[in-house]
TrEMBL record:
Protein name: ORC1/DEAH AAA+ ATPase domain-containing protein
Species name: Blastopirellula marina
An annotated Gene Ontology molecular function: ATP hydrolysis activity
InterPro entries: AAA_22, ExeA_AAA_ATPase_DNA-bind, P-loop_NTPase
Gene3D superfamilies: P-loop containing nucleotide triphosphate hydrolases
Superkingdom of the organism of origin: Bacteria
Lineage per the UniProt record: Bacteria, Pseudomonadati, Planctomycetota, Planctomycetia, Pirellulales
PANTHER family hit by this protein: GENERAL SECRETION PATHWAY PROTEIN A-RELATED (PTHR35894), PHOSPHORIBULOKINASE _ URIDINE KINASE FAMILY (PTHR35894:SF1)
Residues in ORC1/DEAH AAA+ ATPase domain copies: 36-160
Length: 258
C-alpha cells in the first residue's frame, strides 16, 4: 500500500508543536541546572524523541529573557570550525582567518565580560555523539575553566541515548545532571492528535482509541515518527475519501516508513 513516492515529502514541520509532560519536565530540569549554576548538564533521549526541537524552543526563550546563548547544532569536525562558530555566537570580534589560539582568547574575553555583567551564559551543543576527539577536548577545557558557579556559565550537551555508553566518558564525569527526554504515552499521543486535527481541519482526521494504541505501538512513542504517521494518514485518507484512521491504516503506514 503506497501513499507517496517518498514519505520525506510529508515533513514533520507541518505538525503543530506539542508541549508534552515529558517536554515540560525536561525543560524544568534544564532550568534547575541553570539556577544551580551547574557546570555540565546532559540531555539524552532516543533518535526522534524531540531533543533538537526542545533545545530550539528553550534557547529561544532564554535569549528573549536576556541570557547569552550559544547553540551549536552541528559540532564541527575541525577545531577551527567549532571555535569560530562558538566565538561568533558569543559576539566576539573574529573573522574566518582568525587562528584557533586567537579564537580561544576572544571567547575567554567574552565569557569574562558577560560574567562581570552577571549575565547567565548557556552553551548548548546538539548531537554531541558526532563530535571528534579534538572537539571533545575543547568542550572539556570550556567546562573545566569557564563553566560552573563562579562564571555563571553552563554547558548543555545533547546526545542520543543509544550512543551514551560510547560517548566521551571525560565529559560525562563532569556532568552534574543527566536529563532523559522520555517518549510519549497514549494520552500524550491522543492530545497531540487533537492539536494536529485543529491544525488541519480540512482533513477531518479521526482516530479512535484502537488507532491511538496502534500509533503508540508502532512509533515507540517518538514524536518524529508519530508526526510522520499522522501526515501519511492524512494523505491516505484524502485519497480514499475516508476520515477514520484504523489500526490497519497505521500498520500499512509503518511498513511505508520502514
Amino acid at each position: 500500500m503506497r501513499y507517496a513516492s517518498s514519505p520525506q515529502l510529508i515533513v514533520a514541520s507541518m505538525s503543530p508543536f506539542f508541549e508534552s509532560p515529558a517536554y515540560q519536565e525536561a525543560v524544568a530540569r534544564l532550568e534547575y541546572a541553570l539556577q544551580r549554576h551547574d557546570r555540565v548538564a546532559v540531555l539524552t533521549g532516543a533518535v526522534g524523541s524531540g531533543k533538537t526541537t526542545l533545545l530550539e524552543k528553550w534557547t529561544g526563550q532564554l535569549r528573549r529573557g536576556g541570557a547569552i546563548v550559544a547553540h551549536l547544532r552541528t559540532p564541527g569536525t575541525f577545531e577551527h570550525d567549532f571555535l569560530w562558530d562558538l566565538a561568533i555566537q558569543l559576539k566576539a570580534n573574529v573573522g574566518l582567518a582568525t587562528t584557533p589560539p586567537e579564537l580561544w582568547f576572544e571567547i575567554r574575553e567574552q565569557l569574562t565580560a558577560f560574567t562581570l555583567e552577571q549575565r547567565p551564559i548557556v552553551v548548548v551543543v546538539d548531537h554531541v555523539e558526532e563530535i571528534s576527539r579534538e572537539t571533545a577536548d575543547i568542550l572539556l577545557t570550556l567546562a573545566r575553566l569557564h563553566c560552573g558557579s563562579e562564571t555563571e556559565a553552563t554547558l548543555i550537551l545533547s546526545v542520543d541515548s543509544q550512543h551514551l555508553q560510547t560517548f566521551d566518558t571525560r565529559l560525562l564525569k563532569l556532568a552534574d545532571l543527566k536529563i532523559e527526554l522520555e517518549a510519549w504515552n497514549s494520552d500524550d499521543i491522543a492530545k497531540f492528535t487533537e492539536a494536529y486535527q485543529a491544525a488541519h481541519p480540512e482533513a477531518q482526521l479521526t482516530l479512535d482509541s484502537a488507532a491511538i494504541e496502534a500509533v503508540s505501538r508502532y512509533s515507540d512513542g517518538l514524536p518524529r515518527v508519530i508526526s510522520q504517521i499522522l501526515d501519511l494518514s492524512r494523505l491516505a485518507l484524502a485519497a480514499s475519501e475516508s476520515t477514520s484512521v484504523t489500526p490497519e491504516t497505521v500498520e500499512a503506514i509503518r511498513e511505508e516508513l520502514l
